[in-house]
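Worked problem 6 (solution included).
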Amino acid sequence: MLWAVAHSGRTADLEVCRQALELLWESGPPDLSRASELHDRLGDVMDEMPEDATGVESLVESGVGVLHTGVGLLLWGDPMGATQVSSAVRDFVLEVDPHGDAGLLAREDEAQNRDVADVLTRNDDVVEGLPLLCAAAAELGRTYLAAAVAAQGDSVELRVTAVLDRGDVSEANARTRFGVVGRFVAGDEAGRYVRADLMADLATTPEERVAADGVMIRIADDPDMTTDCIGEWLEDWAAVEETIEQRGWQIDWA
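Solution. The predicted structure is:
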């Protein structure tokens, strides 16, 4: 996106985009005054784009749209804002590589649908869930970057300068273990297995994912959760942690 802005001759807009990227990668609390200013400036860039933009201009428009929705999410943090970012990023990916790996794009769509459903179920807790979505998005972004370099060769200027594992993301990632099977190492459940899943991840249709809410924690005699399996619904990962502490469970998540 920065390459497209530079090659379109928009030198002033290039600095605005760089500042927006730095703001989005900042690990601490965002400067909301700065975010509001950048959001307005990015909106102006979009307003100045020609109608029916094509080629590099179209890539600029799509990329700036991603930054605009991303900074907007920092400002307001509402669930719908997160889904707008998801939609903008998908449009940008298709703009960058319309004939790319269809399988990769299909997996991206599936992952994004899952994340959108997750965000929509969080409601007021959306901010708490955003670091996890950022971690997943960063990993996916590195996959796309590697694929782009492999396809285009070393001559293309594709570099990531942001810190890969921001403190808040890595901490949240270590704290939550959705979909990971653990084993009780002591107590009444010793030797049995435990797993916590977002209800949205257990849903089988898009409609079920959107309607799904909370977390299902399951305990069984086998890691596949098929033998003597019992389940309990909990509100969120914080409730999972509280349950583990209250019941004195000792779990090996390795």
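Discussion: Residues 126-152 form the longest helix (27 residues).
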